[in-house]
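Bumping with the actual sequence this time:
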Amino acid sequence: MTEIEELQRRIVAALDRIGQGLEGREAAGDAGEVADLRQQLEDERLANAQLEERVRKLKSRQEAAQAEAESAREATAARLEKLDKELQSLRKANQQLRDNNVALREANAQGVGDPHLINKAMLAEIEGLRASRATDRAEADVILSELGKVLEASDGEDETRTEEA
């Protein structure tokens, strides 16, 4: 029996040593796994930081584009207001011209050629031409401004395509 007890004790000791060896290997395996997980975590943090930076850049671009759009809207509103004033001036000058022409026709129908009415009609016509020229100029300014925006947008798209490539 003592031999059996001795063998049993030796088997238990061997099993303990095997268990300890396995635990050591598991711990070593866990350390490797922990290191691998830490590396993956660090990789994810780096990717997250890169994505956050891209979001910041996109947000900055969007804010700049919104500010530019607001500025363009305000400039367009100012140009349209100027154009509207010029059109009102043109309408007023044309109405004066029509009124003076009616008065001239009535004076001519009565056989009374009034030099004052002729001068007034000529002045109204000149004012109408000036207003018409100012309106044409305002329209041309609006068209040139819009064409400039289209060209700038076209250049911006080309630059964006170049940056993305």
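The tokens above came from a reply further down the thread. The CA atoms of residues 55 and 61 lie 10 Å apart.
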